[in-house]
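[scheduler] slot 2 assigned
[scheduler] job type: sequence-to-structure, two independent chains
[scheduler] chain ordering preserved from manifest
[runner] begin chain α
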Amino acid sequence: MIEIIPAILPKNYEDMKNKIALVRGIVPIVQIDLCDGEFIDNMTWPFSTGGVEDYNFIKIMNEEEGMPFWEDLDFELDLMVMDAIDNFDIYTKLSPKRIVFHLESVGEIEELRNFIEGMDVYIRDAIQIGVAVNTTTKVELVFPLINYVDFVQCMGIENVGFQGQDFDERVLEQIKTLKKEFPDLIISVDGGVNFETAPKLVEAGATRLVAGSIILKAEDIRETIFELENLN
């Protein structure tokens, strides 16, 4: 069965809460896209509502409240930000089960590798680490990181950080290359996932599909997720 992860681009805290509520009780994990407006043009919560000054963000940092419905599901944080390494400790306070670094935002690959390798053992045991790669980036660049991460996230669109974008066929070759070199690697695809593209992604070797529009805009969210999970 393919793992389906709903993707949420939160405009603000209430928007995030409302969208998580749509899939609450249906999936065990959701992806929250954190966009700082620097790495990509889009900006999401908490950056869109004051960053470290956002009221709800402050309460979470002070452990006065948690992420919406944290008792019912886990969170995968997709860090489309320029400060992923520098402010990693802040992001961990959002209590994620998984964190995704974007290769193009972290600078030198060796820096990211050394950072992951040097993580506190408790943090590393508690949080799965992934690295994302754009369709415009040579997927071979992630090879030196494979032994240090839990999964690779291939972006299925060129214009990352926005939902409803056109599918980029180049991701299929990236997946095939990764699958050939690392047969046991968990490969996630984020962006451009729909009923037309999903079978191609699964056939190429993807094991996780991160989807936004097709799920959140569906008339029957539960059935949509079920159909995606059971693609052959």
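[runner] end chain α
[runner] begin chain β
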Amino acid sequence: MMLREITWLEMLVRIIIAFVLGGMLGMERGLKQRPAGLRTYMLVCVGACLIMMTNEYVVQQYGSGDPVRMGAQVVSGIGFLGAGTIIVTRHNQIKGLTTAAGLWAAAAVGLATGVGFYEAAIAGAVVIFVTLSVLSNLDDRMHRKTDHFEAYVELPSSVSLGMFMDALHARSITVEDVQLDAHLAMDDGSRSFLMMLSTSQRFDRAELMDQIAIAAKDADIQLVSCRII
């Protein structure tokens, strides 16, 4: 006899736990206006739970088969759903990675619940929730001041890229990599670039923007646009 045999009561308990745990994770994402929120996380967690229970039921009823085969398909298949939440913006910013990872983790919580491993499901959901909510503030503080930045810059046609790079270098800002943004064609002949910048000391975004503005002013360069991304 299985340790936690599937009965009507056991089935309802597992589905309710998956529903509650998935909702807890999805609520945190939804409050931050992320692509996948409350309902998405609930559906992923409950769906994974149902698949795991179905697999366990088949083995229990027929006495044969792999009890984790269907669950393995969830682990690989959830990647397609997670990939849909990842967005690469026009300026090569990648958004949605945390949401995609959260969906994958929510599926794992659902699988653990579906197989009756409640202890791991609840502990895992709590750790995931803390990671998504509490540790996000720590992550923000870690990235608030840094010495590496990515910048989007539009230069007028009268200013060469080398001239602008020299102006930055005079303020101890090094251009480590630069690429022309081919997505934009400026009517006035100006050009847009994506630049990887490093600085001799740590700045936040506003401080670096001030340094770039000073560098441009000292070199008598009128920038069309500049922002840290």
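[runner] end chain β
[qc] chain β: The CA atoms of residues 177 and 205 lie 18 Å apart.
[scheduler] slot 2 released
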